[in-house]
Design brief:
The protein is an alpha+beta fold and 386 residues long. The protein is built from ten helices and eight strands. Bound molecules: flavin-adenine dinucleotide.
Length: 386
């Protein structure tokens, strides 16, 4: 795929996923959230159709595509009102890291399940005392014979309750200070000493966030993914797809909100013409559409570079795409809610809950300010204040 135009295959994937999303739709997800459940049926069907593992290698049950394809899947499900947040972590981060750096046994053990959706994996890097400064993470891995023993805390980790395991970012004990020397461990959900507490979020989402405690969690040698000395490279191999997928999540949500607002503005009439005829309503919606399209263009560039093996080039583009998509999504949702007037805040129309949901893409996995910092320092060569 060139970053500017999509191939016929991509267009076909886009419309097939859109059709699946339409069959489930917003009402399906709203019901699952209200009942405290998860979109299991959609997840299973998307897995069976090969969408969840579209980026993973064919020899391990995946579709043999890349992040370009997986981002199409997430964007289209989001545009239909039923995004699957776990796509960001399970196949995109964890699947990618295992496919690129895992041992043969790890690939065989995990990739077929991550591809068909029968297994999922969460991802945990954020810590309460480190936050945006991941160089400060203190979750520590100590060797004991051939085993690893992990201790530390994590916060805001999504989907730990439904994931079979969490890919935990720690650091080796001899690298407790100084710059980050991360290493990645597969921690099974029921591992002894692996505790979780659900965080009470003001978010209407099927996927919950958790605070985790790792209290001397003993893991076999093969829980370590990849090389303990090449951790940073491996970590970034997973974080670029995460940024691209967060952009896809945001663009999908923005498109969903915008389409609801456009439908409403075409019909709702309180003077002579529908409210959509007033430019004060029409122009901000047109602007939201343009901003979402622009964000998608940068997302496609980032996915293209990443899939072509340019990890460094993809880093800048993935950050910019995440920034642009997060901002476009927040503005699209805000304008959509406003377009519906009072109905924008009713449960029946279901748009108000997107206000908090849209903010997530501005904060996670890396905040707007940290991307502006990245561009200030890496791209523009400006000095650092921290
Ligand atoms: C819904 C949700 C799901 C999440 N899921 C996951 C997950 O699955 N796995 C995971 O590991 N993490 C997850 N996170 C965590 C997320 O990645 C962090 O919240 C994010 O990285 C910000 O960290 P923080 O919350 O500690 O904010 P802080 O780092 O405390 O930042 C607070 C504010 O200060 C600003 N700030 C900080 N440093 C600077 C600076 N140098 N210059 C300018 N401004 C600065 C930030 O931009 C932000 O606005 C999730 C978060 C949310 C909300």
């Amino acid at each position: 795929m060139s970053p500017v135009t999509e191939t016929d295959e991509h267009k076909a994937l886009r419309s097939a996923v859109a059709a699946l999303g339409k069959r489930y739709g917003r009402a399906y997800l709203t019901k699952a959230v209200a009942e405290g459940g998860h979109p299991d049926e959609l997840w299973a069907e998307a897995g069976k159709l090969g969408y969840l593992g579209v980026n993973l290698p064919e020899e391990y049950g995946g579709g043999g595509g890349g992040i370009a394809e997986l981002s199409i899947v997430l964007e289209e499900l989001g545009a239909a009102g039923c995004p699957l947040l776990m796509l960001v972590v399970s196949p995109a981060i964890c699947g990618t890291v295992i496919a690129r750096f895992g041992t043969e046994e790890q690939k065989r053990a995990w990739l077929p399940g991550l591809s068909d959706g029968s297994r999922t994996m969460a991802f945990g890097i954020t810590e309460p005392d480190a936050g945006s400064n991941s160089h400060r993470i203190t979750t520590t891995a100590r060797r004991d014979g051939t085993d690893w023993v992990l201790s530390g805390r994590k916060v805001f980790i999504s989907g730990v309750d439904i994931a079979d395991a969490t890919l935990i970012v720690g650091r080796t004990e001899d690298a407790r200070t100084g710059s980050l020397k991360p290493c990645l461990f597969i921690v099974p959900r029921d591992a002894e000493g692996f505790g979780r507490r659900q965080i009470d979020m003001e978010l209407s989402s099927a996927e919950k966030q958790f605070e985790l405690t790792l209290d001397e969690v003993r893991l076999p040698a093969d829980a370590l993914v990849g090389d303990e000395d090449a951790g940073l490279l491996q970590l970034f191999a997973g974080l670029n797809p995460e940024r691209v997928m967060t952009a896809a999540f945001a663009i999908g949500m923005g498109r969903y909100a915008l389409s609801r607002a456009v439908e409403y503005a075409r019909e709702r009439t309180v003077w002579k013409a529908p409210i959509g005829a007033h430019q004060a309503i029409a122009h901000p919606l047109a602007q939201a559409h343009i901003e979402l399209e622009l964000a998608r263009l940068m997302m496609q560039k980032a996915a293209y570079l990443y899939d072509a093996g340019d990890d460094i080039g993809a880093g800048e583009a993935a950050n910019m795409a995440k920034y642009a998509a997060g901002e476009a999504c927040v503005r699209a949702v805000d304008q959509a809610v406003h377009t519906l007037g009072g109905n924008g805040l009713t449960r029946e129309f279901g748009l108000a809950s997107l206000i908090t949901a849209a903010r997530v893409s501005r904060i996670a996995p890396v905040s707007r300010e940290m991307i502006l910092n990245y561009v200030s320092h890496q791209t523009l060569g400006l000095p650092k204040s921290y």
